[in-house]
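Before relying on records like the one below, remember that each one covers exactly one chain. Contacts with other chains, cofactors or solvent are not represented anywhere in the record.
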Amino acid sequence: MKKFLQKYFRYFAFFYEYLGYKVFLLLASSLLVGLLDGFGLALFIPVFQIAADGITQENRDALGNLEFLLDWIEMLGFGLNLNVILGVMVALFFFKSILKFYDGIFKTKLQMEFVRKLRYEMVDGLGGMSYKNFLNLDAGKVQNTLSGEVFKVTYSFLTFFSTIQFLVLLLVYVGLAMLSNFQFAILVSIGGFLSNFIFKIIFKFTEKASVGVTAYNHEFQSYLIQAVHNFKYLKATDYFAKYKNKLKAIIDSIEDQQKKIGVYSAFLGATREPIVLIIVVAVILIQVNYLGGQIATIMASLLFFYRALNYVISLQTSWQGFVAHYGGIVAAMELMDEFRLMKEPTESVNKISKIHQIEIANLNFAYNPQTPVLNQVNIRIENLSTLALVGGSGSGKTTMVNLIIGLLEPTSGHILVNGNERAYFDKSTYRMRFGYITQEPVIFNDNIFNNVTFWDERNPENERRFREAIRLANIESFVENLPEKDLTRLGDNGMLVSGGQKQRISIARELYKEVDILILDEATSALDSETERSIQENIENLKGKYTIIIVAHRLSTVKKADKILVLNKGIVDGEGSFDQLIDQNLLFKRMVELQEF
């Protein structure tokens, strides 16, 4: 079923993937609504006829193949009279209204379920990507699809299934019209089919404009993210005046495409009803003047086509709405496909509770074969030791950290954890054993408690862990002296506190996590000397409690490390304590003299 739908009904298959059989229940309810409404309408004719001159065989024949409705009423045993027929009509429309009410509720629930599942899958897809694949991802596209385009997808869901429901109702009324007067129904259907070519051309133009809007929105989001990220530079150099012209040009392109969609929609809205009406009138004239038909014989069919006319208009309006938001569907489908292709493979289910030792043997790594980054690296990281990685820019320090923490995989060689290949362990539980502190502290626009605990529940045990973490990170007195204490909000990217406090909060978060290994990747290089010295004292207090890996340029950060590795163009150029390397390694000695780290 799924493969059939994907081949012939691509967008239906997209919704079916998330909702399954429920979409067919939605269509079944629409079918029942149409039948109840159609049968009720058909009974209008005998009502008029009974009111005029009673039921005759000629009057029964006016219903065509729908005469069975009168037979069913007679089977009720109440006779065939005006009161009975009116009662049946009221009952049919009453049940139709109840069914339509529940149909609307069911549709709303399906919409909520669909949007929730789609957003969940998008978030899971983003989190499930490998880091290497993430580096090649268009940030603007992800941002726009997850925030902006998903609303288009929501609207597309409503309009798509409204279109299908209107189509079902249209087919019901056309079917009833054919039962009533087959010849008349065929002529109208042919005219409607021919008119559809006009609408199809407009829909094609609308689709193209909708995809254009989505593409420009991706681009706008990308440039907007960069504007926010680089605001200080753009403002300080007055480049923002020039940069905003780029943003405005993209906005103009978006609005041009939106204008096209609006023009196409206006054209359809203005011409849709006259075209359909012209077809019906033409068919009536043909049948009466050339085919010898009588108005009385086509009355029931005309009633159904009048009803169908409303659904033709509703169907085309709804489909135009879907096509206008078609770009959102395309963006969502493309992004989900990318997430699936870029998903990080799950290699093992073996969980790891503690990291005692990491050994790197004959490791080689390259982002592509032409540019090797690390070559024949051998490192042993002992439990509770402090290892420092130093070297010039491009020497491979950060890549080495990314390999250790499991963000990247070696091109060749081995990474052994507790004597086993790292692939033996589940990556998620392995990464949970690491605390990672970067040059730019990661601070969320929330209060201190949530930043440190990462939104853990506020209970006695978590509060105890929180207090211990801020004590070890040396910010306990800072937090207690704030008016709102740990409920103090930090602002976007921690803009309401100093760089040193942001870094301490980052350290506290990793300590709260109860990790085995702390990685400090240029963690103090962006701080002034006094703040750096204070942070360094915090790190010194943590020695012996955690295995620590330090990536740094400054002498003060690595001087007391148990072991220092000197990296030079991807090769380990020297290994030893600070004093040993000063005496034995010319590159390290020169770096110290030049204060390059």
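The domain at 345-433+519-524+547-597 is CATH 3.40.50.300 (Rossmann fold).
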